[in-house]
């Protein structure tokens, strides 16, 4: 008799039933999102804390390797465990609520904010988990879509969604649809998307840049900064005074919040970044957000970094005005066997997850300090990811100091090893952002040891050359043969046990878990991660770099 047990998940309070099957299989069958990867007990992705209840370990097949991921006494792996009765499991830092992909939303109101700006207020049929700064796609009848920033904080506005939309001549939504909308009409939405979101990390002074209706994406970030009571300054560029359509709110906010200032910048007066750079901001400690046209964002980033802004403290979203032609990036044609994807997959979602992972890696690297232990670094990284909005990680965060850099990520490390003044460090992240998997890793050098510096140089050269080989149509297997030859030519050894993997909407392991090095077809863009780990032939020195294969990396 297959007795069913009730498994409660804390802190969400959600439950599922499990019988004789593995707890991981039971949880997936119930429709709950759960991080997992290898299913062999090696990666630790499905680690949970046992708060109550008993379990038994999976019976292994003869000669099968035993699970090797190190666990505390109160921890277990879902992929290796069966419930013996009712249980309560704790999943720290892990949200079971995957944001909805498609929703219907009813029009509540529509009004003009200026001669060409319309405020549209919608109520979705399902509550959306929106982070300040994200946007939604509006589906059109021909299958096309248009993206618009959410200009409020829905969680503090009874779930309403506010959009500030410029009427554009030839716009497939703003001209063909928006004008005829009435209260009660229903629209199809997808999302939310976007990684230009409030980074709730510290109380650094905030500088905001917007042009035109890019202000709509900046306003929720401004609202978040005002709630946090940090110093915040907004520079809003426009062609004419009417373009500053939210002036009443901003002027009142200056009165209500003494640490807030805003500057309307007319095109005739100069560029927003030129005005800001003349105001004496402490760029070395600032957090900068920018939303608007691509040219403005490129110029703001370049000039702010030149003024001392750390690269990971610049967060931006560029939008292209809609017209008759679609602006949406096409989704690649994936192999139906080896490159399956889930229902949430989108190019935009994957790009946003990549961008946020890169920012997270830079932020974590900037907080590494000589003398800290590996364990302390891992705790700091978990705190950073959570503060930046990661719901959980689809694989554990790996941080390696010194001699541990030659170890594969899933091999045990010395958590008490300390970062030295002259050292080499590997950081490998696998966070999940809004239901999309990020995966990014890199190597950092402390001091100026020639072998350490040579390792990072060779590492990025091997990656770049292998990526170029991918552009020539090599298969996954051929790519790693090429990478091995490239590494040897530079005096290093390629660690073939790190062989690339799939990436998709979470969790990709549901669809395919094949390694890139075993793939006998050319891998598609935005579906595979190229991993390169180099080791010195004789010294305990290693480096690691990974990124998703994409055309415009």
**What is the number of independent domains?**
4
CATH topology of the largest domain: Creatine Amidinohydrolase
Number of strands: 28
What is the structural class? alpha+beta
Supply the CATH class of the largest domain: Alpha Beta
> β content, as a range?
25-35%
Biggest beta sheet summary = 6 strands, antiparallel
Global outline: globular
Task: Give structural notes.
This protein is of the alpha+beta class. The chain folds into four domains: 5-90, Beta-grasp domain (Ubiquitin-like (UB roll)); 102-193, Translation factors (Elongation Factor Tu (Ef-tu), domain 3), CATH 2.40.30; 206-318, Nucleotide-binding domain of ferredoxin-NADP reductase (FNR) module (Rossmann fold); 347-548, Creatinase/methionine aminopeptidase superfamily (Creatine Amidinohydrolase). Helix content is 22%, strand content 27%. It is built from nine helices and 28 strands. It has a six-stranded antiparallel β-sheet with strand order 11-10-13-8-9-12. Strand 15, helix 3 and strand 16 form a beta-alpha-beta unit. Mean pLDDT is 88; it is low at 322-330. Residues 100-199 form the FAD-binding FR-type domain. Keywords: Iron, Iron-sulfur, Metal-binding. Pfam families: FAD_binding_6, Fer2, NAD_binding_1, Peptidase_M24. This is (Fe-S)-binding protein. It comes from Pseudomonas extremorientalis.
Topology readout:
Elements: E1 5-10, E2 15-18, H1 23-29, E3 47-52, E4 55-57, E5 75-77, E6 81-83, E7 87-90, E8 102-114, E9 117-124, E10 135-139, E11 145-149, E12 161-166, E13 186-193, E14 206-211, H2 215-228, E15 232-238, H3 247-256, E16 260-266, H4 272-277, E17 287-292, H5 294-306, E18 314-318, H6 347-366, H7 374-387, E19 392-393, E20 398-401, E21 423-429, E22 431-433, E23 436-437, E24 440-446, H8 450-471, H9 476-489, E25 493-494, E26 501-502, E27 528-535, E28 542-548
Parallel strand pairs: 1-7, 14-15, 14-17, 15-16, 17-18
Antiparallel strand pairs: 1-2, 3-5, 3-7, 4-6, 8-9, 8-13, 9-12, 10-11, 10-13, 19-22, 20-21, 21-24, 22-23, 25-27, 26-27, 27-28
Helix pairs in contact: 8-9
């Amino acid at each position: 008799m297959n007795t069913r047990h009730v498994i409660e998940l804390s802190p969400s309070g959600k439950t599922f039933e499990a019988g004789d099957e593995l707890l991981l299989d039971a949880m997936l069958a119930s429709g709950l999102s759960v991080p997992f990867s290898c299913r062999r007990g090696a990666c630790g992705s499905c680690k949970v804390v046992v708060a109550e209840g008993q379990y038994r370990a999976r019976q292994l097949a003869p000669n099968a390797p035993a699970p090797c991921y190190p666990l505390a006494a109160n921890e277990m792996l879902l992929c290796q465990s069966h419930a013996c009765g009712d249980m309560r499991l704790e999943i720290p830092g892990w949200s079971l609520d995957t944001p909805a992909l498609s929703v219907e939303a009813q029009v509540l109101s529509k009004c003009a904010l200026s001669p060409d700006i319309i405020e549209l207020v919608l109520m979705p049929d399902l509550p959306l988990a929106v982070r300040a700064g994200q946007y939604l796609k509006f589906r059109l009848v021909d299958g096309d879509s248009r993206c618009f920033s959410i200009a409020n904080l829905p969680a503090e506005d009874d779930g309403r969604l506010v959009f500030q939309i410029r009427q554009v001549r030839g716009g497939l939504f703003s001209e063909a649809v928006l004008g005829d909308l009435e209260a009660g009409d229903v629209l199809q939405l997808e999302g939310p998307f976007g990684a230009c979101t409030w980074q709730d990390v510290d109380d650094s002074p905030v500088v905001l840049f917007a042009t035109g209706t890019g202000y709509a994406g900046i306003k929720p970030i401004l609202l978040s900064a005002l709630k946090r009571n940090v110093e915040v300054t907004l520079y809003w560029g426009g062609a004419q005074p009417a373009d500053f359509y939210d002036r009443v709110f901003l002027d009142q906010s200056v009165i209500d919040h003494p640490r807030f200032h805003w500057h309307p910048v007319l095109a005739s007066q100069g560029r927003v970044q030129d005005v800001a750079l003349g105001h004496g901001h402490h760029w070395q400690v600032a957090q900068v957000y920018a939303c608007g046209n691509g040219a403005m964002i490129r110029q703001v980033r370049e000039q702010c970094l030149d003024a001392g802004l750390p690269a990971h403290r610049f967060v931006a979203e560029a939008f292209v005005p809609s017209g008759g032609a679609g602006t949406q990036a096409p989704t690649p044609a994936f192999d139906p066997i080896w490159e399956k994807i889930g229902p949430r997959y989108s190019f935009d979602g994957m790009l946003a997850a990549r961008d946020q992972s890169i920012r997270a890696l830079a932020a974590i690297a900037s907080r590494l300090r000589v003398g800290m232990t590996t364990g302390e670094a891992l705790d700091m990284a978990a705190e950073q990811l959570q503060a930046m909005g990661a719901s959980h990680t689809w694989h554990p965060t790996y941080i390696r100091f010194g001699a541990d850099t030659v170890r594969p990520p899933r091999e045990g490390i010395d958590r008490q090893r300390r970062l030295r003044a002259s050292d080499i460090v590997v950081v490998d992240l696998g966070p999940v952002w809004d239901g999309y998997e990020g995966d990014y890793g890199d190597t950092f050098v402390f001091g100026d040891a020639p072998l350490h510096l040579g390792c990072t140089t060779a590492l990025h050269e091997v990656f770049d050359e292998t990526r170029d080989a991918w552009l020539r149509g090599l298969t996954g297997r051929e790519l790693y043969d090429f990478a091995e030859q490239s590494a040897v030519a530079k005096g290093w050894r390629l660690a073939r046990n790190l062989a690339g993997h799939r990436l998709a909407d979470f969790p990709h392991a549901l669809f395919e878990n094949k390694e890139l090095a075993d793939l006998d077809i050319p891998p598609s863009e935005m579906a595979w991660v190229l991993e390169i780990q180099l080791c010195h032939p004789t010294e305990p020195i290693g480096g690691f770099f990974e990124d998703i294969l994409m055309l415009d990396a």
